[in-house]
Structure formats: structure tokens, C-alpha cells
């Protein structure tokens, strides 16, 4: 099993199913890319680099987006 | 009404509106429309992986409104800077409403961490609009380091108490060379008008609109109040005094 820690929670992926990039992860999770921001191991990933930023097992990922706020 | 200018950008509306606490994205969109606001604040939170449809942004026309991400939830400068950078990555714009509120009960802003974060963000090219207590000294320090506005509070966030910081706000407005946006605690259109009559450059309203029975009508009421207050300020108030001063002539009476 491969593992990514997403927003503090470990998520298991069967072998061969680990998303290879940030863009692929967002697609698997069904998250609209245009409104999200991502950090991989504490480093911010620019949206235009979602498709080229490789993921590997054990990494910690933060996915955030806008919600209502004052 | 004069235009509002923040960081060189012109706005016709002097009412900023927050997007929290609305019953639905549709109710929010209608209220934003009626408010005439051109700047709307949003917060940044972790995506709820289990409930991916909580996407507020889809109801906001980003071509029509300038999105102003806030750093709500930040407890110190470091967290506020991290949130600001994530917001910039998400929007592609570098405006941020800086708020650092370690105290969860009154949500009062931490002046030391706010100043620290503002210094870092200004150097990093952000347009910084800091939410602060009504502190004239801090306001000066912030404008001196290059923040785009100061945003002093009228009373605690969401309390709807109105302007409890009048004397300090008057000093802030007098000393400011950046726009003063009165943020937090304004519960009624009359509170907003009061701030504008005092010479505030703009106000930010969220709870008072979002939690009204009819948010879109309340949004319109705030729009009118802000315009009335600003127009009165520009017109210059008449002098107030202790004694009566007859409005009608004191000659030509029908006697003797």
C-alpha cells in the first residue's frame, strides 16, 4: 500500500494507484483545480505546476480552498 | 461620491462585504449584487475531502468582484504569512486582509503579530489590509511600513454592537494617509453611516447582512447608508451647539 497524508489524514492507495502528480490527485478526489491551492511537504505548489509536481508515497499534502469568510 | 482608492486601484463602492454565514451561496450572491460591493472577503480552509461540494467560490463572479482573502484562523505571524501565500497561490492576486486573532473568545487582533506579519508580507509584494484594534499608534506604524489600508474595529467581530471605539477611530482617521476601513461590529446601517460621517473611507460588513432575515434587502440598506454617510462627510457637517438657533426669521412677527 502507498500512503499520502492529505490534510492531516493518512489515505491509502493500492499499489499502482498512487496519483503521480498534484493534478492527478485533485482529479481522483474530484476537486476543482481552479479554486484550490496545494502544499506538498510544506512547500506551496503554484497552480500552473500542479500537473508537473510529482508525488511519492509518504508525502504530506495540504489542499485548501476558499470558503465564506469576513 | 469620491472614488475609493486602495493601492492605486479605484472603486466606486465604499462598502466591502464578507461572505461568511450566509444561508446558501445563492442568498450570498444576491446580497453581494444588492450591496454594490466591489471587494468581497473570503477565508481559506482545508478542503473537506468527504464533502467536496462546499465550494463557496462558485457563487462569486470573480470577474465582477475583487476577492480579498483573509487570514482568519491565524494565531501568529507565521500562520498568517503561510495563509497569505496559499491564498495568493489560489487566486493569483496578491491582496490580503491580514488578521491574527489568537483569542477565540473576543477574536481581538494581536497587534504585535499583526505588525510582524505585515512587515514580512509588504516586503514580499503583498497588498496588505490589516485588521486591527482601534489603536492610533499601531495604525501609524502599519501605514509607515507600507500597508495599503488600516482596518480598525468598531467593536468585536460579529457582535453587531456598533462603534464603541469612536474616540480612537477619530484619531486614526485624522492621522491616516492610507484609507481607513472600519471593520467588525457594525450591526446596523446607521452604524455604517456613522463611520462614514466621521470620515472613514469605507466599511466592511458581514454578519449584519448575512444573518439578517432578508440579506439582500439589508445589503441594499447598508449600500444606501454608506452612500449617505459619505456624501454627508463630503458635504461638511453643520456645527452642533448647546443652544437653540432659530431656523425661521426672528423679525416680522404678527404682533405690535
Question: Topology of this structure?
Answer:
The complex is a heterodimer of chains A (70) and B (256).
Chain A: E1 2-6, E2 9-13, H1 22-29, E3 36-40, E4 43-45, E5 60-68
Parallel strand pairs in A: 1-5
Antiparallel strand pairs in A: 1-2, 3-4, 3-5
Chain B: E1 4-6, E2 9-11, E3 15-18, H1 25-35, E4 39-46, E5 66-69, H2 77-91, E6 95-98, H3 111-123, E7 127-132, H4 136-145, E8 151-152, H5 166-175, E9 181-183, H6 189-198, E10 202-205, H7 207-210, H8 215-235
Parallel strand pairs in B: 3-4, 3-10, 4-5, 6-7, 7-8, 9-10
Antiparallel strand pairs in B: 1-2
Summing up helix and strand content along with how strands pair, one would put the structural category of chain A as mainly beta
CATH superfamily of chain A: Beta-grasp domain
CATH fold assignment of chain A: Ubiquitin-like (UB roll)
End-to-end span of chain A in angstroms? 42 Å
Mean pLDDT of chain B: 94
Could you explain how this protein is built, in words?
- The complex is a heterodimer of chains A (70) and B (256).
- Chain A is mainly beta.
- Chain A has one domain: Beta-grasp domain (Ubiquitin-like (UB roll)).
- Chain A is 11% helix and 39% strand.
- Chain A is built from one helix and five strands.
- A five-stranded mixed sheet of chain A has the order 2-1-5-3-4, with no helix packed on it.
- In chain A, a hairpin with a 2-residue loop joins β3 (36-40) and β4.
- Chain B is of the alpha/beta class and 256 residues long.
- Chain B has a single domain (4-235), classed as Aldolase class I (TIM Barrel), CATH 3.20.20.
- Chain B has eight helices and ten strands.
- The longest helix of chain B has 21 residues, at 215-235.
- Chain B is globular.
- Chain B starts with a strand and ends in a 21-residue tail after the last helix.
- The A-B interface holds A 6-9, 11, 29-32, 35-39, 44-47, 62-70 and B 18-22, 28, 41-47, 49, 52, 54-58, 67, 69-70, 72, 85-87, 89-92, 157-158, 184, 204, 206-207.
- β5 (60-68) of chain A pairs antiparallel with β4 of chain B, so a sheet runs across the interface.
Amino acid at each position: 500500500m502507498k500512503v499520502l497524508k492529505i490534510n492531516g489524514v493518512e489515505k491509502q492507495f493500492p499499489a499502482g494507484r498512487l496519483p503521480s502528480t498534484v493534478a492527478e490527485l485533485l482529479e481522483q478526489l474530484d476537486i476543482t483545480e481552479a479554486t484550490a491551492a496545494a502544499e506538498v511537504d510544506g512547500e506551496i505548489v503554484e497552480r500552473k505546476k500542479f500537473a508537473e509536481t510529482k508525488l511519492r508515497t509518504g508525502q504530506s499534502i495540504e489542499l485548501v480552498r476558499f470558503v465564506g469568510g469576513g | 461620491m469620491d472614488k475609493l482608492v486602495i493601492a492605486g486601484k479605484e472603486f466606486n463602492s465604499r462598502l466591502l462585504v464578507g461572505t461568511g454565514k450566509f444561508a446558501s451561496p445563492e442568498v450570498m450572491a444576491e446580497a453581494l449584487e444588492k450591496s454594490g460591493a466591489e471587494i468581497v472577503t473570503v477565508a481559506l480552509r482545508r478542503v473537506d475531502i468527504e464533502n467536496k461540494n462546499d465550494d463557496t467560490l462558485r457563487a462569486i463572479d470573480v470577474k465582477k468582484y475583487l476577492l480579498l482573502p483573509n487570514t482568519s484562523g491565524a494565531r501568529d505571524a507565521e500562520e498568517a504569512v503561510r495563509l497569505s501565500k496559499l491564498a495568493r497561490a489560489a487566486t493569483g492576486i496578491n491582496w490580503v486582509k491580514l488578521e491574527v486573532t489568537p483569542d477565540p473568545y473576543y477574536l481581538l487582533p494581536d497587534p504585535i503579530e499583526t505588525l510582524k506579519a505585515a512587515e514580512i508580507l509588504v516586503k514580499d509584494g503583498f497588498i496588505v489590509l490589516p485588521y486591527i484594534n482601534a489603536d492610533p499608534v499601531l495604525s501609524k506604524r502599519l501605514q509607515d511600513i507600507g500597508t495599503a489600508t488600516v482596518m480598525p474595529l468598531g467593536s468585536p467581530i460579529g457582535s453587531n454592537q456598533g462603534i464603541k471605539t469612536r474616540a480612537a477611530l477619530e484619531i486614526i482617521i485624522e492621522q491616516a494617509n492610507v484609507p481607513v476601513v472600519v471593520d467588525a461590529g457594525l450591526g446596523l446601517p446607521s452604524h455604517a453611516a456613522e463611520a462614514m460621517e466621521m470620515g472613514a473611507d469605507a466599511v466592511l460588513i458581514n454578519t449584519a447582512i448575512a444573518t439578517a432575515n432578508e440579506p439582500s434587502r439589508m445589503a441594499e440598506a447598508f449600500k444606501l447608508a454608506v452612500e449617505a454617510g459619505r456624501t454627508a462627510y463630503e458635504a461638511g457637517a453643520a456645527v452642533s451647539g448647546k443652544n437653540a438657533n432659530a431656523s425661521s426669521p426672528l423679525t416680522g412677527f404678527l404682533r405690535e
